[in-house]
Design goal:
The chain has 21 helices and eleven strands. With about 475 residues, the protein is α/β, with parallel strands linked by helices. Helix 12 crosses helix 17. The relative contact order is 0.10. Bound molecules: D-mannonic acid. D-mannonic acid binds next to helix 10 and helix 14. This is Mannitol-1-phosphate 5-dehydrogenase.
Length: about 475
């Protein structure tokens, strides 16, 4: 067992993170701990959807165990790079830290759905969170923005006022062009509040794009017990993750950054090929398994992949994705797609990682826009049916239909629209659901028909099971 404990004294806060959850702790915090200059880079992490995570971590001085769970067994490491864990509602502390000249980097894992953007990538002023936060920001010092983007914009205004200089915002959510998405959200909200702040952000804040990867299921009570048994101490907030990890980054760090490359992070000029490889092959297969697997009665990724029908659907989608992926990076580096696929199957088959399909199924409308739509659109453009990508959308359509019929809530930012679409008769229902993912595809009669036929097949299979 390897145990690395935080150097004493605590590293100074130079990174502020929004979205303190399991993935941040198994990924960016792990990389920061393993950077050669780790003693100079402490993280202050603010909670998002789980405010209790701050209290739990603070109770153990920010320290927690990363359980690296391989096929063969577990290894344990204490990570100490998070030096402050704060309830996200504490916008005063957030503004204070972001206004501090020593703060150089802001990292984000706020979920794909939290950027409040329309399908065209611009700020959606009708998004309830965006609309409410704009009112809060306009209310001045008494305002209490509640979305991560609203809170960040509020804090950047404090940095502008303090004259603390430039910094980098590093988006670590699974979105295509995630740096641009973050920029659109932050600058869009600033523009609607105070155009001078928007101009300052444009001139001083760089938005770094990244592709992040490490399978990190939700921690269970059994995981807590396993750490107690193996390590002899009680950790209320361990994180379980697969041994594999990957971080590709592209962009400027005007105020510096940790030497994450010492821990294996890779810095590139053009991130798109890496981003598409990961989003389409890994995340795409995940979403397909989440919907088709649940329809076929499976609970975890490993279980679903052991079902030949699910595996065949994944392979069909991967063949299409691969046909539309560039096999080389801008510098000519071979992206080794066939080997990447083989490695992914092994990662998914790690049965010691219980990665629940319900966790992946959340926020499907946002995820499928990035995971299925680009492949389907490219296939249609090439004059092919796109049956593999259509199959992922069909599995989602069938899943939404079944959940609605059974009266189960769908966790999705568009849950209301999904419910309204599911109430429509057959062909209209499929068209309306596809339109929530991509309007032009919903106008393509062949695609809608294919999705409808595939979705009907998925439902029938479940009924027979
Ligand atoms: C998953 C991802 O929940 C999901 O949507 O596809 O969280 C996935 O596990 C990570 O991106 C792996 O790096």
């Amino acid at each position: 067992m390897s145990r690395t404990v935080r150097p004493v004294p605590k590293a100074p806060v130079r990174i502020v993170h929004l979205g303190l959850g399991a993935f941040h702790r198994s990924h960016q915090a792990w990389y920061t701990q393993h950077a050669g200059d780790a003693p100079d880079w402490g993280i202050a992490a603010f909670t998002g959807r789980r405010p209790d995570a701050a209290a739990s971590l603070s109770g153990q001085d920010g320290l927690y165990t990363v359980v690296e769970r391989g096929d063969e067994g577990d290894t344990f490491e204490v990570v100490g790079s998070i030096v402050e864990a704060v309830d996200g509602a504490d916008i005063g502390r957030l503004a204070g830290l972001i206004a501090a000249p020593g703060t150089a980097v802001v990292t984000l894992t706020i979920t794909e759905a939290a950027y409040g953007l329309r399908a065209d990538g611009r700020l959606d002023p009708k998004d309830p969170g965006v609309a409410d936060d704009l009112q809060q920001l306009k209310a001045g010092p008494d305002g209490m923005p509640t979305t991560p983007v609203g809170r960040l914009v509020n804090a950047l205004a404090a940095r502008q006022a303090a004259g603390a200089g430039p910094l980098a915002v590093v988006c670590c959510d699974n979105l295509s062009h995630n740096g641009t998405v973050a920029r659109n959200a932050v600058v869009g909200m600033a523009e609607a509040w105070d155009p001078r702040l928007a101009a300052w952000i444009d001139a001083n804040v760089s938005f770094v794009s990244t592709s992040v990867d490490r399978i990190t299921p939700r921690t269970t009570d059994a995981d807590v017990e396993a750490v107690t048994a193996a390590c002899g101490y009680r950790d209320n907030s361990p994180v379980v993750a697969e041994p594999f990890r990957n971080w590709v980054l592209s962009g400027d760090f005007p105020a510096g950054r940790p030497r994450w490359e010492d821990a294996g992070a890779v810095f590139v000029d053009d991130i798109e090929p890496y981003e598409n490889r990961k989003l389409w092959l890994l995340n795409g297969a995940h979403s397909l398994l989440a919907y088709l697997g649940q329809l076929r009665g499976h609970t975890t990724v490993a279980e679903a992949l052991a079902d030949p029908a699910c595996l065949a659907a994944v392979e069909r989608f991967w063949d299409e994705a691969e046909a539309n992926l560039s096999g080389a990076a801008a510098d000519g580096a071979d992206l080794q797609i066939p080997a990447y696929r083989v490695q992914l199957l092994a990662r998914f088959r790690n049965a010691r990682i219980a990665h629940h399909l319900t966790q992946i199924a959340m926020d499907g409308s946002t995820k499928l826009r990035m995971r299925a739509v680009p492949v389907l659109a490219a296939e249609r453009e090439a004059g092919r049916t796109g049956e593999g990508a259509a199959g992922m959308i069909a599995a989602w359509v069938a899943f939404c239909g079944a959940a609605t019929q059974e009266g189960q809530a769908i966790q999705d930012p568009l849950a209301g629209d999904i419910a309204a679409a599911c109430a429509l008769p057959g062909p209209d229902r499929v068209r309306a659901l596809v339109a929530l993912l991509n309007e032009p595809l919903s106008q393509d009669g062949g695609t809608v028909e294919l999705v409808a036929t595939l979705a009907a097949g998925f439902v029938r299979q479940e009924a027979q099971a």
